[in-house]
Amino acid sequence: MNQGDEAHSETVYSMAHYKRMTILGNLESIRTLKKFKKFAERYFENVDYGSYGLTAVEKPKAKILRSQLNLMLERAKRALSSVELSPDICDASRPTAAGYEEGVYLVDNIFNLHQLKISPQTLLDYVERAIGVYRDDKLKSLMRTLNPLFWLSIVLDYVSGLPFAFLGALGLNRSKIEEGSFGKFMKGCFRVAVVVTVLAVIVDHLGYLDPIEQKMDGFLSHLKLKSQEWIANLEDSPQIIMLENSPLHKD
Question: Fewest 10 Å CB contacts: which of 104, 142, 178, 193?
Answer without folding.
Answer: 193
